[in-house]
Amino acid sequence: MSRVDHRVTEQRNQRTQDIDARSTTEMLELINSEDQKVAKAVEKTIPEISRAVDLTTEQLRNGGRLFYIGAGTSGRLGVLDAAECSPTFRTDPEQVQGIIAGGRDALIRSIEGAEDNEQDGAEAVKSHQINQHDILCGIATSGTTPFVIGALKYAQSRKIPTIALFCNPVQPEEVPADILINPIVGPEVITGSTRMKAGTATKLVLNMLTTTTMIKLGKVYGNLMVDLTAVNRKLIDRAERIVMKLTGVSREQAKAALEPAQYRVKNAVLIALGGITLQQSEEILSRHCGMLRAAIDEVKGQ
Q: 233-300 — its CATH code?
């Protein structure tokens, strides 16, 4: 694929060329001023993120899985976002997964050369048995990482839906993906250190992609996390407070509804509101594809 002569992320930032000669406060102000450009760059890609959300929602609603694949910082951010989905949205750990070049060891240390082979990317797609029911999001701030490009090419050859998240200017027709999300954040504060602005842009996009998808799948009511997995004291407390907020019951009553529901918030809300059984709450949620708002309307209408 053709590229601009010099990748933007590899160019020198004119504003920070003397950063080493600045005071501590001035260094921080420079970093902060550059960081403020990131959200604006991401904002320009909302139409593409919207398309990616709709496609991801369709695949997951029909039983598919979302895979992130990347190397270095990009790979770590994909693994992080995938790992957060299960406790936040009660997803099956298999439903959203992150693949990083070099495997688990690459999460905590640099694995030299792990990203340099397209075939390794293709093999990663094969080994995870990614298929046409799934969706693959390739993350590469440079837009040229062979491991990611190889994965996307292989996926496209198998008609697997694909998203590319790159932070260097590319043309959509040059990218082996159905959807290109391309926030251009400009040169880094430290030349080539894409863990900074490009990494921040990546984190913002991944937050938007999975959060909005999960909202559309019924994992959120209003702005409340109604499908959380209560695996620690903080989340148990949050589950109780959500049930209290949505039903007006006391904490003790919230606990009494949550316990038979195995701390599944949506079920507990329906139990508390309607005085129904767990089985009945499951049947109501099933009728409404897990959407709590519609389920509450049915219970209140009984």
A: 1.10.8.1080
Residues annotated catalytic, as ranges: 84, 115
Domain 8-216 adopts which CATH fold? Rossmann fold (3.40.50)
Structure tokens at 161: 């839906």
**Tens digit of pLDDT for each residue in 176-204?**
999 999 999 999 999 988 999 999 999 99
Provide the pLDDT for residue 114.
80
- The reply to whether 233-300 shares the fold of 8-216 is no
Q: Where are the domains of the chain?
A: 8-216, 233-300
pTM of the predicted model as reported, rounded to 2 decimal places? 0.91
pLDDT in tens, 203-253: 999 999 999 999 999 999 999 999 999 989 999 999 999 999 999 999 999
pLDDT (mean) for 68-87: 96
